[in-house]
């Protein structure tokens, strides 16, 4: 504890130079910009910036990289909310309620709660890195494939929150997502599945591509199909500021989301997607009855505040295994590790001991980046919200162009563009016939992860299925999933009988 | 007007100055297109960019153009390189043993037989590790456990059919068991695999030495054996010297497109030979901790054919090819 405080003091002393603040600002700015574009993520950006490691000293370079990393998390939510076009996989859930709020004249509060929620979560996550890192990571290592599979089953319960009116339609969507998730090479055997002989499909279908296709392209095509020449609807931009009630409704989700997100980030196979789903589900269940009807209709602010906080806290958590054990658990972390190597620093369990000054400077710069980002983003809220004043035909045309450019940016591949529009057209018909699109994306994210975790667990247990029940943590998570699944129904029946 | 003439003069002077500066070697190629069938930051990308750094400093190549197309052990990028660069004398692709296994398991119609081998540059031996808390103390203990109960000795490594998986297959065969009996747990990327070993979720792990080096140094993993011909670390025995007749390394090299003329190929071989002879390259190998595995021309082709045969045989035994 005292070591951490002394370390932080040293870190702030190093980070708070004019040059380093400049790197942080540049990183935050770049990060926000690339977070806005779907396809271009922080990993690719840092990879493109790698050559600067030949010229810039290590401290400056890592401050820049961390700014990009945190900035991308902030930027990702902006397009999710305004254009229903998620910039990265962690903001897919944000689009569910955020886009509905924007459509109903509440873009300002949605953007503001996302920005402030990101700040709260970023701060909690960074505090977690500073004080809890080594402890949490050792606990996280105790989780094996069996526990991950149980966690994913728990996440599957959250699908029920987005199924919509008809369970049959919702489950059909879910299975479409599971099917899309199967495309590509199977990790456990190396065999291609459903790739139709197209080499680009060997690597699977990108989940951000599917989210953009269903949410943005499908919606746009549907609007074009159903467009009438009646008097154009004038969109309300509404109040930019969060009202007192918005604040009251956001604070709980911010903290719950942060506490949920951080441990998932620390887990070597956790990631940002699972906690955003769980947070959305939790907020939907915990919401006060008078606001419950806003979910899925006019957009509930809790459904933006919670997942967005979970996303950012998880992003901070991802840095913990990288800094304490040298484990790259995400693409971004892997590239940052290779940057360490180009300075001749070998990140590993000894990094804190050998490069203490650098690590603490990096952590201090995370605090600085976090403050910079909220200062950078809050004034922009009003500007962004004004995008919605564009008349609908032009706005939707713009979304289409934006989605197309962003998707091409994922891997410069025409196959991706074909996929974008084929899935977009499917999305248009789904919208027409009232099939919910969110279960597709959830199925696509969870399906492959659950499958691999299950098969890894079964290989380790030599095919013994009871491994999921005999490992205590796994059993506890499964029981929690069972309670979440049947609890509300039993309670409803009980309350109804009385 | 003077301003413009001045600019022109400067523009004309630049290449001359650059030439004077790089007069140490004669330029072999004006530009070279370098194709990396993997994402930025990995081993293939590292080799490509190391070649750029050394060749440009020495003035052997004027300019480099990079393209990364990652995914599926190079199976996504390879068809693109073959299709778009056919017959081009100024293009190279970085590839290695991972691609041999990947194209076989993925059953892609295009394979390394469709490109022109130029040079093998580096190699890295693998290492067999156990978690520090394991009751397996040395290689003998590991081999006994593996021989007695291969199914119960779960081993973590990279994607199925890759070098790590093939290493396990070869060890099992050397022990007189079938490669199919192995209990191999594939993980996507080094991070999750290391986490599974550190957390003792699996009994042991196999991967490239550099992936585990820091964990071994810090005492969180115990190294049992390396897979090269010679010891990498004086304290860690090789499989071969311990009586397990397995030598396998993860090699990396460069390939030219299909259909190039023999003289174009000779020129690229000469270029790589020149790069390899530079002191800057020796220095590069040292800083990156890569082992030199330089091999060109027909010798490289023969090695490649042998590697493909061996890999295919093991993959067939495991049931993946």
Describe the structure.
The complex is a heterodimer of chains A (about 500) and B (about 325). Chain A has 22 helices and 2 strands. Chain A is an all-alpha fold and about 500 residues long. In chain A, strand 1 and strand 2 (about 190-195) form a beta hairpin. The model of chain A has no long low-confidence stretch (mean pLDDT about 85). Chain B has 11 helices and 10 strands. Chain B is α/β, with parallel strands linked by helices and about 325 residues long. In chain B, helix 4 (about 95-105) crosses helix 11 (about 295-320). Chains A and B meet through helix 3, strand 1, helix 15 and helix 20 of A and helix 3, helix 4, strand 6, helix 7 and helix 8 of B.
The tally of helices of chain B reads: 11
Could you describe the largest sheet of chain A, including whether it forms a barrel?
A: 2 strands, antiparallel
Helix and strand element order of chain A: HHHHHHHHHEEHHHHHHHHHHHHH
Could you give the order of the helices and strands of chain B? HEHEHEHEHEHEHEHEEHHEH
CATH class of the largest domain in chain B: Alpha Beta
Distance between the termini of chain A: 53 Å
In the CATH hierarchy, the third-tier topology of the largest domain in chain B is known as D-Maltodextrin-Binding Protein, domain 2
Q: In a nutshell, what does this entry contain?
A:
Chain A has 498 residues and is mostly helical. Chain A has helices at residues 2-15, 18-36, 42-49, 58-83, 92-103, 107-131, 133-140, 145-157, 167-182, 207-226, 244-266, 273-286, 289-292, 302-325, 331-342, 351-354, 356-385, 392-411, 414-432, 438-460, 467-470, 472-497; strands spanning 184-185, 192-193.
Question: What's the SSE blueprint?
Answer:
The complex is a heterodimer of chains A (498) and B (321).
Chain A: H1 2-15, H2 18-36, H3 42-49, H4 58-83, H5 92-103, H6 107-131, H7 133-140, H8 145-157, H9 167-182, E1 184-185, E2 192-193, H10 207-226, H11 244-266, H12 273-286, H13 289-292, H14 302-325, H15 331-342, H16 351-354, H17 356-385, H18 392-411, H19 414-432, H20 438-460, H21 467-470, H22 472-497
Antiparallel strand pairs in A: 1-2
Chain B: H1 2-21, E1 29-36, H2 43-57, E2 61-68, H3 77-85, E3 91-96, H4 97-105, E4 116-131, H5 139-148, E5 154-157, H6 163-174, E6 183-186, H7 190-198, E7 204-208, H8 209-217, E8 221-226, E9 249-256, H9 262-277, H10 279-288, E10 291-296, H11 297-318
Parallel strand pairs in B: 1-2, 1-3, 5-6, 5-7
Antiparallel strand pairs in B: 3-9, 4-7, 4-8, 4-9, 4-10
């Amino acid at each position: 504890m005292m070591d951490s405080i002394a370390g932080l003091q040293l870190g702030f002393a190093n980070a708070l130079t004019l040059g380093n603040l400049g790197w942080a600002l540049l990183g935050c700015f770049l990060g926000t910009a690339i977070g806005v574009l779907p396809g271009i993520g922080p990993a690719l950006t840092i990879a493109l910036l790698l050559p600067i490691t030949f010229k810039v000293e290590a401290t400056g370079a890592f401050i820049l990289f961390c700014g990009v990393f945190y900035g991308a998390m902030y930027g990702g939510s902006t397009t999710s909310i305004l254009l229903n076009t998620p910039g990265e996989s962690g903001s897919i859930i944000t689009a569910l309620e955020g886009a509905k709020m924007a459509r109903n004249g509440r873009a300002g509060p949605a953007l503001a709660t996302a920005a402030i929620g990101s700040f709260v979560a970023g701060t909690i996550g960074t505090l977690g890195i500073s004080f809890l890192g080594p402890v949490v990571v050792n606990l996280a290592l105790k989780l094996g494939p069996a526990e991950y599979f149980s966690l994913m089953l728990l996440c599957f319960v959250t699908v029920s929150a987005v199924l919509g009116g008809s369970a049959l339609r919702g489950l059909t969507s879910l299975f479409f997502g599971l099917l899309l998730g199967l495309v590509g090479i199977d990790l456990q055997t190396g065999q291609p599945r459903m790739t139709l002989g197209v080499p680009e499909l060997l690597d699977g279908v990108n989940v951000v591509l599917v989210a953009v296709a269903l949410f943005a392209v499908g919606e746009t095509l549907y609007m074009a199909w159903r467009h009438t020449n009646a008097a154009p609807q004038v969109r309300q931009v509404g109040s930019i500021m969060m009202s007192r009630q918005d604040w009251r409704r956001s604070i709980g989700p911010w903290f719950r989301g942060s506490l949920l997100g951080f441990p998932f980030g620390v887990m070597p196979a956790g990631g940002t997607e699972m906690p955003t789903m769980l947070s959305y589900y939790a907020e939907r269940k915990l919401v006060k009855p008078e606001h419950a009807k806003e979910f899925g209709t006019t957009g509930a602010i809790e459904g933006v505040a919670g997942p967005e906080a979970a996303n950012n806290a998880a992003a901070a958590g991802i840095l913990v295994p990288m800094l304490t054990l040298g484990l790259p658990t995400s693409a971004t972390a892997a590239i940052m590790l290779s940057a360490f190597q180009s300075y001749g620093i070998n990140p590993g369990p000894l990094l804190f001991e050998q490069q203490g000054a650098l690590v603490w400077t990096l952590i201090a710069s995370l605090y600085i980046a976090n403050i910079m980002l909220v200062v950078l983003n809050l004034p922009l809220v009003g500007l962004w919200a004004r995008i919605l004043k564009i008349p609908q035909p032009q706005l939707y045309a713009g979304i289409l162009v934006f989605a197309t450019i962003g998707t091409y940016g994922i891997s410069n591949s025409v196959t991706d563009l074909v996929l974008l529009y084929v899935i977009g057209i499917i999305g248009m018909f789904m919208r027409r016939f009232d099939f919910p699109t969110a279960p597709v994306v959830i199925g696509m994210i969870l399906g492959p992860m659950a499958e691999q975790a299950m098969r890894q667990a079964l290989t380790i247990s030599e095919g013994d299925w009871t491994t999921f029940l005999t490992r205590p943590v796994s059993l506890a998570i499964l029981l929690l999933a069972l309670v979440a699944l049947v609890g509300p129904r039993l309670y409803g029946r009980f309350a109804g009988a009385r | 007007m003077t301003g413009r003439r001045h600019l022109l003069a400067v523009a004309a002077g630049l290449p001359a100055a650059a030439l004077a500066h790089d007069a140490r070697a004669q330029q072999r190629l004006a530009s070279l297109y370098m194709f990396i069938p993997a994402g930025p930051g990995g081993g293939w990308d590292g080799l490509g960019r190391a070649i750029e750094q050394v060749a440009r400093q020495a003035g052997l190549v004027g300019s480099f153009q990079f393209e990364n197309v990652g995914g599926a052990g190079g199976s996504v990028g390879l068809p693109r390189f073959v299709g778009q660069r056919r017959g081009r004398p100024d293009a190279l692709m970085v590839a290695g043993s991972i691609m041999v296994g990947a194209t076989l398991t993925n059953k892609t119609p295009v394979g390394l037989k469709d490109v022109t081998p130029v040079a093998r540059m580096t190699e890295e031996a693998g290492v067999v590790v156990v978690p520090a808390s394991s009751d397996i103390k040395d290689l003998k203990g590991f081999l006994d456990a593996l021989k007695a109960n291969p199914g119960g000795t779960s081993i973590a490594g990279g994607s199925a059919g890759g070098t790590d998986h093939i290493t396990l297959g070869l060890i099992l065969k050397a022990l007189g068991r079938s490669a199919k009996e192995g209990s191999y747990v594939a993980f996507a990327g080094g991070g999750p695999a290391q986490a599974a070993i550190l957390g003792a979720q699996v009994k042991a792990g196999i991967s490239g030495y550099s992936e585990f080096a820091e964990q071994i140094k810090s005492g969180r993993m115990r190294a049992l054996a390396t897979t090269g011909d010679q010891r990498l670390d004086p304290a860690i025995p090789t499989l071969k010297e311990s009586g397990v007749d397995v030598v396998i390394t993860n090699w990396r090299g460069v390939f030219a497109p299909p259909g190039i003329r023999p003289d174009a190929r000779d020129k690229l071989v000469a270029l790589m030979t020149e790069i390899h002879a530079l002191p800057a390259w020796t220095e590069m190998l040292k800083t990156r901790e890569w082992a030199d595995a330089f091999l060109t021309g027909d010798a490289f082709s023969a090695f490649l054919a042998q590697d493909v045969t061996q890999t295919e045989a093991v993959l067939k035994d495991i049931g993946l090819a």
